[in-house]
Design the sequence.
């Protein structure tokens, strides 16, 4: 999974990778050559007192060291550049995939987990790539080259490598195997901390209103403690790894000096050769240590790669059409649902079934029903936030599944139940649906949405800042700005999903009057809980348990539909309902 992910995103950088490998190769060869030169200076220069030879070989060592420094610097530079590009491309790929997700896929993963996968998980893969470019290329070359050169210096002394290297590999391997499940738990716990933190930040008003600060602190402390526990377990394993490596290195150094001294005493080898052998031993063990760093990071990066691939491999349930159609003859605004059914994956019963509905231009169609009857789900099917699992949703007799997404967006203006404003300004939020809208169009939309007064009262007016989610304006102001945003785009079909719930009665009445003038030739579909909001609608559709149980005007339904009558009389008296 890890190799497949990295290979796929590194294809455009093959030339840079080749350059990094070449630089690492030259740098490693230079590193391996230096101990041999040092041995020659000791055995052929110092022992014999040949100053000229010492200067010549010393100059050569300086030149080799310079090459080593240049190549090492270049390898680190290009390796870092390539690994950063890898991280950038993977983040972009995740973001692009999430942009294609419907609400179903986003709900499946959850926003905190998607954020973690886009940031922390990608960072782990990126760091592994950086370590690979800077260490893993040179480590095997240095280890193999060091062993060959050590064997060339003294075959008997090289027998120590048969004990040292396996002991190091087995010790590190035992620790790395235990790390893998801990790294998976660590990423899951990071998700949990992000989720709790996000809920506490977004729900701070509710927490304060119910004085649940202590409970939320306990929730965060629990998630934080779980992450800390796993992190400590990983830290203990990592802490035990390096003393183990240093213990083996120190024991092997003592052994080389002990047996090497006996070899020198018996004229089996020279002092310079022993010095070079000791340097090669250190290089071999350091190469194993560099590989150790890699082995420590691989399990966590592999877990992260699996989580990233899970996102990238998830196919959106709402798929753009292969041959997108445009709306022939312009948009008229005729909306129809034919025998529509919708079920969530794994659900025993469909949320909506046998839905037949027609909404015409110049008319207001209202949808009302008890909580959980499927009103919002029905409205979400029109702009394709979900796709119907059966039946057809048609705009101007064209199935929305076949429509070009841009054409559908221009035809349908949607104001969700929980309006969301983006960080920026009032103007940037209003132009979200129509980038080239003039200031005059923005003011007109604000006036219709009954938002002009409070925007004019702001010092910056259209340039007034909006915080993420619109948290610096009230709920009613946020709803009116969301309605104005839909009006700016001037679509032919307006969908209002309980979009007037935060408005007082006077503002509600004024908005509906202004909206009726503005949308007199458009199709308007309103989902509402308050009867007063929809009693004057041309057609009222009553939903109950995911089915249409009544259609007609307010007066007709009061006389013929028990469900509608119960809803009305729960809010109004008999006299007010007439």
Sequence:
């Amino acid at each position: 999974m890890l190799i497949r992910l990295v290979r796929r995103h590194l294809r455009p950088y093959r030339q840079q990778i080749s350059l990094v490998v070449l630089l690492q190769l030259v740098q490693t060869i230079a590193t391996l050559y230096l101990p041999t030169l040092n041995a020659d200076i000791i055995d052929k220069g110092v022992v014999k007192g040949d100053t000229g030879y010492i200067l010549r070989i010393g100059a050569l060592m300086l030149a080799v060291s310079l090459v080593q420094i240049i190549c090492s610097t270049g390898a680190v530079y290009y390796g870092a550049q390539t690994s950063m590009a890898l991280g950038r491309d993977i983040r972009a790929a995740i973001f692009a995939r999430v942009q294609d997700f419907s609400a179903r896929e986003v709900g499946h993963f959850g926003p905190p987990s998607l954020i973690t996968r886009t940031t922390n998980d990608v960072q782990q893969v990126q760091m592994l790539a950086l370590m690979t470019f800077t260490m893993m290329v040179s480590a095997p070359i240095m280890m193999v080259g060091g062993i060959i050169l050590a064997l060339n210096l003294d075959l008997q002394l090289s027998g120590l490598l048969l004990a040292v290297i396996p002991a190091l590999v087995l010790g590190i391997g035992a620790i790395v195997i235990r790390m893998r499940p801990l790294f998976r738990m660590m990423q899951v716990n990071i998700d949990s901390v992000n989720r709790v933190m996000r809920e506490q930040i977004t729900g701070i008003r509710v927490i304060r209103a119910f004085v649940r600060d202590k409970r939320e602190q306990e929730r965060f402390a629990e998630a934080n403690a779980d992450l800390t526990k796993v992190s400590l377990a990983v830290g203990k394993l990592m802490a035990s790894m390096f003393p183990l490596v240093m213990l083996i290195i120190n024991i092997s150094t003592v052994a080389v000096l002990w047996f090497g001294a006996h070899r020198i005493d018996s004229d089996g080898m020279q002092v310079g050769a022993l010095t070079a052998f000791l340097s090669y031993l250190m290089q071999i063990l350091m190469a194993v240590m560099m590989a150790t760093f890699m082995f420590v990071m691989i399990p966590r990066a592999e877990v992260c790669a699996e989580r990233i691939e899970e996102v990238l491999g998830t196919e959106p349930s709402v798929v753009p059409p292969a041959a997108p159609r445009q709306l022939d003859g312009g948009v008229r605004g005729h909306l129809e649902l034919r025998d529509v059914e919708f079920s969530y994956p794994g659900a025993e019963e469909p949320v909506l079934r046998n839905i037949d509905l027609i909404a015409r231009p110049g008319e207001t169609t209202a949808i009302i029903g008890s909580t959980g009857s499927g009103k919002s789900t029905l409205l979400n099917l029109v702009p394709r936030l979900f796709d119907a699992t059966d039946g057809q949703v048609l705009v101007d007799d064209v199935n929305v599944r076949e429509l070009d997404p841009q054409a559908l967006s221009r035809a349908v203006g949607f104001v969700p139940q929980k309006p969301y404003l983006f960080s920026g300004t009032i103007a940037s939020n209003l132009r979200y649906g129509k980038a080239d809208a003039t200031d005059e169009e923005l003011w007109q939309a604000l006036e219709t949405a009954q938002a002009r007064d409070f925007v004019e009262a702001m010092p910056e007016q259209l340039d007034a800042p909006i915080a993420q989610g619109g948290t610096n304006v009230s709920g009613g102001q946020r709803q009116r700005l969301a309605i104005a945003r839909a009006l700016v785009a001037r679509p032919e079909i307006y969908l209002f999903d309980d979009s007037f719930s935060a408005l007082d009665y006077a503002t509600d009445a004024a908005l509906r009057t202004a909206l009726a003038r503005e949308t007199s030739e458009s199709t308007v579909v309103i989902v509402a809980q308050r009867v007063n909001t929809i009693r004057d609608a041309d057609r009222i559709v009553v939903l109950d348990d995911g089915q249409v149980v009544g259609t007609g005007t307010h007066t007709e339904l009061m006389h013929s539909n028990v469900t509608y009558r119960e809803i009305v009389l729960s809010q109004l008296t008999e006299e007010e309902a007439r």
